[in-house]
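User: These chains co-purify. Model them together.
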Amino acid sequence: MQSLEIIGLIAGACTTFSFVPQILKMWKSKSAKDISLGMYCIFSTGVILWVIYGAYINSLPLMIWNAVTLLFVLLIVYFKLRWK
Amino acid sequence: MQSLEIIGLIAGACTTFSFVPQILKMWKSKSAKDISLGMYCIFSTGVILWVIYGAYINSLPLMIWNAVTLLFVLLIVYFKLRWK
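Assistant: Joint model of the two components:
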């Protein structure tokens, strides 16, 4: 694998899995007061569009990274609605 | 502009500007208790790598969207450190 591909892979892993600490924090504290619902709704919309864009240009990494991100982000939306 | 480019443009705008409502919420409440510092540190790293990746592949949109995102995300990190 070329160094360029590795950079793209690590970049995608970081921006996707960065949501895990936020999920764990909310899960432990059962609190979501400071979380912006607006942010995660807009972000979800963007991520869905990235999946569609990825499908159009036949980019499997773009589709997979964004699909996984969407799962994490929707979980944060659910926690926010549950714990306010 | 083709519909494909428009989808990519809206996707980028959503995932970049989604952080604005979070910034405004923190600014108004002066509170950041539920925000995960770990999330924003890992996300910043990812975004920096996307800028580098964008530079390598000569993708100006990738560089610009991620550079703007980085500004927003670093502001959230600053607020988090300031208001805990």
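Chain A has a mean pLDDT of 94.
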